[in-house]
Amino acid sequence: MVVSSIHVSATRVDAPALTALAEFGDTTPRGIAGVIARLVNAGELEAGSRLPTVRELAGAIGVSPATVSQAWQALSRAGLIESRGRAGSFVRDAASARLAPRMRGMAAPNDPVRLDLSRGTPDPLLLPALGPALSRVSARAETGSYQAEPVIPGLAAVLADSWPSSAESIMVVDGALDAITRTLDQVVRFGDRVVVEHPGFPPFLDLLDALGAEAVPVRLDEHGMRPDALAAALARRPVAVLLQPRAQNPTGASMTVERAAELARVIRSSDDGDDVVVIEDDHSGLISTEGDVTLGTWLPDRVVHVRSFSKSHGPDLRIAALGGPRQLIDRVVARRMLGPGWTSRMLQTILVDLLTDGASIDAVAEARRQYYTRQRALGDALRARGVPVAPADGINLWVPVLSERSALVQLAAAGIRVAAGSPFLAASDSADAANGARSRPGGDFVRVTVGVLRQGTEEVADALATAAQHVAAGGY
Description:
Distance between the termini: 46 Å
Helix content: 25-40%
CATH superfamily of the largest domain: Type I PLP-dependent aspartate aminotransferase-like (Major domain)
Mean pLDDT: 87
Number of domains: 3
Number of helices: 18
Largest sheet: 8 strands, mixed
CATH topology of the largest domain: Aspartate Aminotransferase, domain 2
CATH class of the largest domain: Alpha Beta
CATH architecture of the largest domain: 3-Layer(aba) Sandwich
Number of strands: 14
Oligomer: single chain
Strand order of the largest sheet: 4-11-10-9-8-5-6-7
Shape: globular
């Protein structure tokens, strides 16, 4: 690519000006996106610059509008440009790039609100006290060798005893998202397909975009991924399936043992099932009211199970365990040794204490009971008001509303903040239609973090029911 000395100010950039800035030698979607990305990174296209329309640029460089549209979508997913509807597409302000696109959609404003049910975090009052565990940690932070085993023996033993299936190797990393990222890095290459839940966790979708992978959405019911939808998705030859076995975020769905066995059977019977890696994010395991479940019981050689302790013991501990086939886990360990190396052994020692101390165990059990009570109370109150919410596990509830934007405004006027549902949606209308499902049954959705709702359930149910208005039952 040849970049000229022309400098474009934060204004409208027409197609001739853009083609004067750079040569579009590679006119595939990836090539076009690469040219624009390099212009943005070099400062040749300033933040706020309005880009030419898809048709204008397509005509200027001799490709179809669909090709340019795909390039624009890739740039948008990467956070470099943004669409403003009829106003056009603009170079995004670099200051907004701290968070990936869908994570930005999840981020709550900093302005105060009477009741914030948007963040997806546990109730801090239900976390076990850290003081006793901290008092028992060694006063010195030391390790015998930079190449020592990454998991301290005490924690390794506790994890092995509580793991839901036999795992050849278990390691510790810095939170569930770190575990998912590192596993995807070893499994997924540019252009690969990965099966994801729809709706699903927005950072997973951002991760796949960053890897250049294609998300293949699969619909859910009250027990998680639907076997028929998974079978259809596997026909597209994905390299991995990414799912949440319990307290699925955002729906709160949890798999039964029967559903896990059925999903394993679907994978095993698919044409390329032997090459598919299943990655499970059990982020709320210890506060879930459902029992341990993993596809690893039936597919031990291709399931990586992640267990996080953020929801049960505190997000700032930044600890999750990662277990699965030794060959894959060893690759993750080896790559990690070239970066952070290991998770702080002091933090590991604290976690062992929290997992074995009687008072901490009782605190987590009480948190599990409280979350169950809060979920049931709000769910029952909403159903009594005609809002068709499904029973949920964990701390989040997926609530249908007639209009997402209208619901957010109405709830904000009542002093209540919830999370917009759109960042959790893994499928466009066309992609979802190909999967045999309506894109957004019953209208839009919002995610409500019920786990922090200590009181005022009836008032919140009234506000949510008003926002939902007359939504027909439609599932997830």
